[in-house]
UniProtKB/TrEMBL annotation:
Keywords: Lyase, Membrane, Nucleotide-binding, Receptor, Transmembrane, Transmembrane helix
Name assigned to this protein: Receptor-type guanylate cyclase gcy
TM region positions: 103-120, 455-475
GO BP term, pick one: intracellular signal transduction
Domain PDEase: start-end pairs: 809-1078
A molecular function GO annotation: guanylate cyclase activity
Main location: membrane
One GO cellular component term noted in the UniProt record for this chain: plasma membrane
Record field: compositional bias (Acidic residues): 48-64
Sequence segments annotated as region (Disordered): 1-76
SUPFAM superfamilies referenced in this protein's UniProt entry, alphabetically: HD-domain/PDEase-like, Nucleotide cyclase
A Pfam match: Guanylate_cyc
Annotated PANTHER family: GUANYLATE CYCLASE, GUANYLYL CYCLASE
Length: 1246
C-alpha cells in the first residue's frame, strides 16, 4: 500500500502507469510532458492541512482549471515521477521545507545563545547570592558580638566601681576618701581584663586641694600594691609561658612624692595647687612599667578632664573617643599601635541616691580586641570600618577568622562593595561619642565564591546544543536517504497494485486503509498530576516546660520529661569501624572515638546543637531542644557537614598514631525531623534520653545511608525547602526500605556543593591545623624534622601509602628507642660514650667470630634477658623527655625505607603484610597484663594470678612498649610484675627486637614456599643448606644493611655493648626463624620447648632428669618461647581478626600461591585444596596457637579475643569457604587452564 496522499495523486492522474514491452517502467516523453501539471497538483496537495479534531483532510481552495488539467493528463504518465514528487525528493525540495530547516537551525542557534546567556547569568547570580548570604551572616555575627562586647565592658566596669564602693564602706573607719587602696586589686583586675577584653584597668581617687598633703603622705606609706601587682603579673606569666629560672620579678621603684603632670616636651613637673582638685593615678593593672607614672594628675589631661566632667553630670560610665594621648602610661612600648578608647566609671561614696563621686575606675579598651575571636578559624576575611563621631575619623580593621588586623586610619574598604555595607551603632545613644561599625566584604572573600563554574556550565550548554544541532543534521540526512528508498519502494508497489487490480478495487483498498487509520487514531494523552499536597497538622504540645514545672511542684516524684514538637534528630556512625577496630587494641579504638567525638562536641557547642549520647561508634544529637528554634533542620545539616569534614581531617591526622587504614574511615549521617519526647530517665545511671518515632526514623536514615553522605527524610527535606535550602537536596533514585517504616523517599544533602562552608583551600588549612605534630619530632628543631621527612619522601619506589606506613613504624620504633635510652641513662650510660664504643671494632656482626655460621644455627632455647634492677627503675626518667639525636632519627627512617624497598611486589609477602604484622606485635605487647597477687603466698614461688588490665591498656600503642612500673591494682610491686611477664616488659630492647623482627621477617621474599626453593636447588637454598631459606635470607639482608657505617648512630641507640648487640641479634633471629612453620624439625623443637617451659616435661613425656633448672633459666625459657609465639601470631594475625580482614589477606595469599603455580614454582594448583587446607590450617595451627597465647597467661583478653575470632572465622570458612574459593578461581585461576570450574569448586566436586 502507498500513502493516502500518493493515492489521491494517482487517482486524479488516471490509471497507473503501464509497463513497457521490455518489462521496464513506462518512462517515456509523456511523463515529461505532464511534469509541470503534476508539480502543480503536488503543490496543491502539500498545502492541504490535517484536521486533528475530525481526523480528516481539508484542502485549500484550488482552481477548477488546475483540477481539470490534472484529470485530463495522460493515464500513462510516469508513476515514479509522481511518487518522487509526492515525497519531495527527486523533483527538488520545496522552498518552504528548506526555509523550515534554516528556521530550525536558527532557532537552535538562538536557543543556544539564549540558554547559554541565561545559564551564565544564573550560575554567576547563584555564586553572588551565596557570597552575599555568607557575608551578611559574618557581618551580623560581628556586629552582634561587638555590640555585646562593648555593653559587657560597661557592665563589668560598673560592677568594678560598685565593688570599690563596697570595699570602702567595710574598710577601716579611721581612713576616709581619698585614703583608699583596694585590697587584692591585681586579682580582681586580672579577672576583669579577661572578661572585658580590655588592656588596662586603673583606679584613681578624687583629691581636693585641702586633701593633697594627706593623700601624698598616704600614697608614700601604702605603695606596696605596686610590688604585689608586679609579683602577681610575674606569676601569671610564669604559668602561661615556659619557666625560666633566670627570670625573676622586677622590684618596684619608689613612686613620686607629689602629684605631678606633664609639661612641654613631655617633661614631668609637680602639679601646682588646683582649686578644682586632682585625680592622681593610683592602682593599675598590669602595673606600670615605671613607678613614676603613679600620682599622675589625670585632670591635667584634657581628655580625662572632659570625661570626669561628663561623668559628674551623667553619674554613669562614659566612653571616650579614640585617642593616643598619654596612653604610654598604660601600655607596653613594644606593643603595636592600635586605636583605643577610655571607658570611665564613677565610684560613689555610698550606695545612697545622690551620693558624692569620690573616685573613678577606668579601662583602656582596644577596639581590635572587641572584634577578635568572633568568627570561626576558616572564615574568609571581611573589612570592618569603625567611625568615631568625636574625632570624626575612621579606622579600618580586617577580621580574618579568629584574628583581627588593624590596617590603619581611614576607610580602606573597596568602593565596589559599598552597596553591601552593613552598619550599626556599637554604643548607646546616651554616650557622648558615637561609634558606628560598618562591615564590608573583601576581595579575598569574593574570590572564594566566584569560580570558573559558570564558564564551565556555559561551555557545557554550548556543547549540548552543538551536539543537538549535529544530531539534527545527521537526522535530516538519514530522513532524506529514507525518502529516496521510500520513493523506489512506492513506485514498485503502485505499479504492482495498478497492474493487479482495477481502478474501483484500487480506490476501495485506499478507502479501507483510510478507515482503518481513522479507527486506530492515536489517543489523546493527558498529563496526570503527580503532586499531592499533604496537610501536616501540628497540634499544640501537650506538655510544655511550664506545665512540667507546675506538675513537679504538685508531685515531686513526677518524671522530668516533655514533648518538643519541632526537632531534628541526627544519628551517625563510623563506616568500616568494626573491621578497623578488630586490628587495633582497645586503647587505639577509644583514642579514635574520643578524638572524633570530642571534635564533634566542639562543633555542637559552636552550632548550638544538643548532643544526647554516643552509643558505640554512633553519635546522637538533636536540635530544637532544649531551646526551640525554627531553623533546627538547617542547623543540623550544617552540623552534620561540619562533622563529616572534621572526621576526614581527624582520621587523616591520626593515621600516623593509629596505623595505616585509619584515613579511610568516614561517617554516614541520618536526619529526621518531627516531635520528640525528651526527658531525664532516672535510675542507677540517670541519663537524658530521647524517645519517639522521630528518633527511630532518624536511626533508619543512618542505617540505610552510605559512606560520606548525609541522608535526610522527607520531613527534614520539607523544612530545608521551606528555609530556601532546596539546592542542598538530591532525591535518591529509589525509595529505601526502612525496618518498621516500609519504603521511604529520602534525600542526599550536599550543602558544600552550593556555597555552604569552606572552599577546598580553606579545608586544607583546617586539616593542617587539625593535624597534631607527630611525636617523632619531639626534641628536634625544624631543620632536623625537615631532613627526616625528606628522607622518607626521597625513597624511590615508595608510594604514598608505604611512606605513611614507614612513618608509622618509625614512630613506634622511635618510642621504644627513647625507652631504651631512658633505661640506659638510669644505668649511667650517655650518648657520647655509647657512640665512642660503637665506633670501635665489634664482634656483633658474627657472634663468636664464626663468619660462616648460619643464622638458623644461632637459634637458642633460652635467651637470657637482663635481670630486673629495682634501683635502676627508681632512677629511670620519663621516656617522653628523652631526646634522640637527629642523625639517629634520620637513619631510622632511612633504614625502614630501605627495608620497604627490599620487599618484592608479591600479593601477600609484601611490605603491607610486614606493616600488618608489626601492628599485631604492637597490639600484643601493649596488651601484656599484670597479676593481682595474693600476698599470703610466698612472693618467690609460683602463684595463682587473676589477670587485670594494666595502665598500658589506657595509653596509645606507640606510647606503651615498656610500661611504667606503677602499681595499678595496689598489690603489685615492680619485681613481681617483671617476673610475671617473664622479663619481657622490663627490657625495652626485647620489645624493640620484636617489632624489628616483624618489620624485616619477609624482606626479599621470593613469593613461593621454601620447599619450592629447595626442590629447585636455587642459589639461596644451597647457601642456607635447604633450611628456612626465605627467613634466613631476609635476616641476613636486613642485618647486613643495619651493620653499614651509615647507620652507626642508629646502632648506638639500639645497643651500647657487645652483650646488648648479641642479645638483640639473638632475639631477632629466634623471632624470624619462628615464622618458618613449614619446617617440621623446627616445629617439633618449638613444641618441645613449649612443653618444657609450661608443662615441666620434655616432648616425649619423660621427666627432665636430674638437672634442676634455676628459676632464672625457667623464666627466660618462657620468655623466649612466648616471644617466638608472639611473632608467629603476628605473622598470621589476619586469621584471628575480623572476617573481612581475614578474607582480604587470604585472597592475597591465594593470588600469590596461584601466581607461583603459573610460574612453575609450585607443582600443585592451590585452588584444588585451598578450602580443605584452610580448615586444616585452623585446626592444626591457628587455633592451637591462639590457645597457647591464652595458656601462657601474659596477653590477657587479647588471647581470648584472638581465639574467639579464630573459632568464628573457622566456622564461617566452613560454611562459605567453597563459595569464596570459587570467587578466587573466577578472578585469578581461570587463565591457567589447569583448574576446575568455579561451579565445581563451589559444590565440592573432585
Amino acid at each position: 500500500m502507498t500513502h493516502p496522499k500518493l493515492e489521491n495523486v494517482l487517482e486524479e492522474t488516471g490509471e497507473p502507469s503501464t509497463t513497457s514491452s521490455e518489462g521496464g517502467s513506462g518512462l517515456g516523453l509523456e511523463s515529461h510532458a505532464h511534469e509541470e501539471s503534476m508539480e502543480t497538483k503536488l503543490a496543491t496537495l502539500e498545502e492541504s492541512s490535517y484536521d486533528e479534531e475530525d481526523d480528516s483532510w481539508s484542502d485549500d481552495d484550488t482552481t477548477t482549471n488546475e483540477e481539470s488539467s490534472h484529470r485530463s493528463a495522460s493515464k500513462h504518465g510516469s508513476i515514479s515521477s509522481v511518487t518522487s514528487a509526492a515525497l519531495g525528493i527527486g523533483l527538488g525540495i520545496p522552498r518552504y521545507i528548506l526555509a523550515s530547516k534554516w528556521l530550525v537551525a536558527a532557532v537552535l542557534v538562538g536557543c543556544m545563545v539564549l540558554v547559554s546567556f541565561l545559564s551564565f547569568k544564573y550560575t554567576t547570580g547563584e555564586e553572588q547570592a551565596g557570597f552575599e548570604d555568607q557575608f551578611h551572616d559574618y557581618a551580623d555575627e560581628i556586629i552582634d558580638q561587638a555590640t555585646a562586647n562593648v555593653a559587657a565592658s560597661f557592665r563589668v566596669l560598673s560592677s568594678f566601681g560598685k565593688t570599690a564602693t563596697s570595699l570602702a564602706l567595710f574598710a577601716n573607719e579611721s581612713l576616709t576618701w581619698p585614703q583608699m587602696t583596694l585590697p587584692h586589686f591585681e586579682t580582681r583586675a586580672s579577672d576583669f581584663l579577661f572578661i572585658s577584653k580590655a588592656q588596662q584597668v586603673a583606679f584613681a581617687p578624687l583629691v581636693s586641694d585641702t586633701q593633697r598633703s594627706i593623700w601624698e603622705s598616704y600614697a608614700q606609706t601604702n605603695q606596696q600594691w605596686l610590688q604585689e601587682g608586679i609579683d602577681f603579673e610575674y606569676l601569671q606569666r610564669s604559668e602561661d609561658q615556659a619557666w625560666n629560672e633566670t627570670d625573676v620579678p622586677r622590684q618596684a621603684q619608689p613612686i613620686p612624692a607629689s602629684i605631678w603632670k606633664y609639661v612641654q616636651n613631655n617633661m614631668p613637673m609637680v602639679e601646682k595647687p588646683q582649686s578644682s582638685g586632682y585625680l592622681p593615678l593610683w592602682q593599675t593593672y598590669p602595673p606600670p612599667r615605671e613607678s613614676i607614672h603613679v600620682n599622675y594628675n589625670l585632670l591635667s589631661n584634657p581628655m580625662f578632664a572632659d570625661l570626669v566632667t561628663t561623668v559628674s553630670s551623667t553619674r554613669s560610665g562614659v566612653l571616650s573617643g579614640i585617642t593616643n594621648d598619654d596612653l604610654a602610661l598604660f601600655q607596653d612600648e613594644t606593643a603595636e599601635p592600635c586605636p583605643k578608647s577610655v571607658l570611665l566609671q564613677p565610684v560613689f561614696e555610698s550606695f545612697e541616691a545622690g551620693s558624692a563621686i569620690v573616685a573613678v575606675v577606668f579601662e583602656l579598651l582596644s577596639w581590635g580586641e572587641i572584634f577578635k575571636g568572633i568568627l570561626h578559624d576558616a572564615a574568609t576575611p571581611v573589612m570592618c570600618v569603625l567611625h568615631d563621631s568625636c574625632g570624626n575619623s575612621s579606622y579600618s580593621y580586617q577580621v580574618s577568622g579568629m584574628e583581627t588586623t588593624f590596617l590603619g586610619v581611614g576607610d580602606w574598604h573597596n568602593d565596589k562593595f559599598e552597596s553591601l555595607a552593613v552598619a550599626s551603632n556599637l554604643t548607646s545613644p546616651s554616650n557622648v561619642c558615637s561609634f558606628t561599625l560598618q562591615v564590608y566584604p573583601t576581595d579575598e572573600m569574593e574570590e572564594a565564591f566566584h569560580t570558573s563554574m559558570p564558564l564551565y556550565i556555559t561551555l557545557a550548554v554550548v556543547a549540548v546544543f552543538s551536539f543537538t544541532s549535529l544530531v539534527f543534521l545527521l537526522y535530516d540526512l538519514v530522513v532524506q536517504q529514507q525518502h529516496s528508498t521510500l520513493v523506489a519502494a512506492a513506485t514498485k508497489t503502485t505499479a504492482i497494485i495498478g497492474n493487479l487490480f482495477p481502478q474501483e478495487v484500487h480506490e476501495r483498498l485506499f478507502s479501507s486503509t483510510l478507515a482503518a487509520d481513522k479507527s486506530h487514531a492515536a489517543p489523546k494523552f493527558k498529563m496526570m498530576s503527580m503532586i499531592s499536597e499533604e496537610d501536616r497538622q501540628k497540634g499544640a504540645a501537650a506538655g510544655t516546660a511550664d506545665t512540667a514545672m507546675e506538675e513537679g511542684k504538685k508531685k515531686k516524684d513526677a518524671p522530668i520529661a516533655d514533648l518538643w514538637p519541632d526537632c531534628t534528630v541526627l544519628f551517625c556512625d563510623i563506616c568500616g569501624f568494626t573491621a578497623w577496630s578488630s586490628v587495633r587494641q582497645p586503647t587505639q579504638v577509644f583514642h579514635l572515638l574520643e578524638s572524633v567525638y570530642n571534635e564533634f562536641d566542639t562543633i555542637a557547642h559552636r552550632r548550638n546543637v544538643f548532643k544526647v549520647e554516643t552509643i558505640g561508634d554512633s553519635y546522637l544529637a538533636v536540635t530544637g531542644l532544649p531551646t526551640p528554634r525554627e531553623d533546627h533542620a538547617v542547623v543540623m545539616v550544617k552540623f552534620a557537614y561540619d562533622c563529616l569534614t572534621k572526621m576526614q581531617a581527624t582520621a587523616q591526622a591520626l593515621e600516623l598514631e593509629l596505623g595505616p587504614g585509619t584515613s579511610e574511615l568516614t561517617m554516614r549521617f541520618g536526619l529526621h525531623s518531627g516531635p520528640v519526647t525528651a526527658g531525664v530517665l532516672r535510675g542507677e545511671k540517670t541519663r537524658f534520653q530521647l524517645f519517639g518515632d522521630t528518633v527511630n526514623t532518624a536511626s533508619r536514615m543512618e542505617s540505610t545511608g552510605e559512606r560520606s553522605k548525609i541522608q535526610v527524610s522527607q520531613e527534614t527535606a520539607d523544612l530545608l525547602i521551606a528555609a530556601g535550602r532546596d539546592k542542598w537536596l538530591t532525591a535518591r533514585d529509589t525509595k529505601v526500605l526502612a525496618k518498621g517504616k516500609g519504603k521511604l523517599q529520602t534525600y542526599w544533602c550536599h550543602p558544600r556543593a552550593h556555597g555552604f562552608e569552606r572552599s577546598m583551600s580553606e579545608m586544607s588549612d583546617v586539616m593542617q591545623v587539625a593535624t597534631p605534630r607527630p611525636s617523632l619530632s619531639s626534641g628536634m628543631n625544624m631543620k632536623s624534622l625537615a631532613i627526616l621527612h625528606d628522607t622518607i619522601a626521597s625513597a624511590d619506589g615508595l608510594g604514598e601509602g608505604r611512606k605513611r606506613s614507614v612513618h608509622w613504624i618509625s614512630e613506634i620504633l622511635h618510642k621504644i628507642l627513647k625507652q631504651i635510652l631512658a633505661r640506659r641513662s638510669a644505668s649511667g650510660w650517655n650518648i657520647m660514650l655509647i657512640k665512642k664504643m660503637n665506633d670501635a671494632p665489634s664482634s656483633i656482626v658474627a657472634p663468636n667470630g664464626d663468619e660462616g655460621r648460619l643464622a638458623i644455627d644461632e637459634v637458642k632455647d633460652i635467651i637470657m634477658l637482663p635481670k630486673f634492677d629495682r634501683a635502676m627503675v627508681r632512677k629511670e626518667a620519663d621516656s617522653s623527655s628523652v631526646k634522640i639525636p637527629a642523625p639517629a632519627l634520620e637513619q631510622l627512617d632511612n633504614y625502614i625505607s630501605q627495608v620497604a624497598l627490599l620487599y618484592r611486589d608479591n600479593a601477600f609477602h609484601n611490605f603491607d603484610h610486614a606493616t600488618h604484622a608489626t601492628m599485631g606485635v604492637s597490639k600484643l605487647l601493649a596488651r601484656i597484663v599484670q597479676p593481682e597477687l595474693d600476698y599470703t603466698k610466698d612472693k618467690g614461688r609460683h602463684f595463682e594470678s587473676k589477670r587485670v588490665q594494666t595502665k598500658a591498656e589506657a595509653v596509645s600503642p606507640v606510647e606503651f612498649f615498656a610500661p611504667s612500673y606503677s602499681v595499678c591494682v595496689g598489690l603489685l610491686d615492680h619485681q613481681t610484675y617483671a617476673d610475671h611477664t617473664y622479663g619481657i616488659t622490663s627490657d625495652p630492647l626485647t620489645q624493640f627486637a620484636c617489632v624489628f623482627a616483624a618489620l624485616i621477617h619477609d624482606a626479599d621474599h621470593p613469593g613461593c614456599p621454601n620447599v619450592s626453593l629447595v626442590n629447585e636447588q636455587t642459589e639461596l637454598a644451597v647457601k642456607y643448606e635447604n633450611r628456612s631459606v626465605a627467613e634466613q635470607n631476609s635476616f641476613d639482608l636486613c642485618w647486613n644493611m643495619l651493620m653499614d657505617d651509615k647507620y652507626k648512630d642508629l646502632r648506638s641507640c639500639i645497643y651500647a655493648t657487645d652483650e646488648e648487640g648479641k642479645r638483640f641479634r639473638q632475639l631477632v633471629i629466634n623471632s624470624i626463624i619462628a615464622t618458618d612453620i613449614s619446617d617440621k624439625t623446627l616445629s617439633a623443637q618449638r613444641k618441645a620447648r613449649w612443653m618444657k617451659a609450661f608443662h615441666s616435661q620434655s616432648a616425649d613425656g619423660d621427666a627432665d632428669g636430674d638437672y634442676e633448672e634455676s628459676n632464672e633459666e625457667a623464666v627466660n625459657r618462657k620468655a623466649t618461647i612466648v616471644i617466638e609465639h608472639l611473632i608467629q601470631a603476628s605473622d598470621v594475625v589476619h586469621t584471628m581478626q575480623h572476617w573481612h580482614i581475614y578474607i582480604k589477606w587470604n585472597e592475597k595469599l591465594f593470588q600469590e600461591m596461584h601466581q607461583a603455580f603459573l610460574d612453575g614454582k609450585v607443582e600443585k594448583d592451590p585452588s584444588e585444596s585451598w578450602y580443605e587446607g584452610e580448615l586444616g590450617f585452623y585446626d592444626f595451627y591457628i587455633i592451637p596457637l591462639a590457645k597457647k597465647l591464652k595458656e601462657c597467661g601474659v596477653f590477657g583478653v587479647s588471647s581470648a579475643e584472638y581465639l574467639n575470632y579464630a573459632t568464628a572465622n573457622r566456622k564461617e570458612w566452613e560454611v562459605r569457604g567453597r563459595e569464596v574459593v570459587a570467587g578466587y578461581v573466577a578472578k585469578y585461576a581461570k587463565k591457567s587452564g589447569k583448574t576446575k570450574s568455579a561451579r565445581d569448586l563451589w559444590r565440592g566436586k573432585p
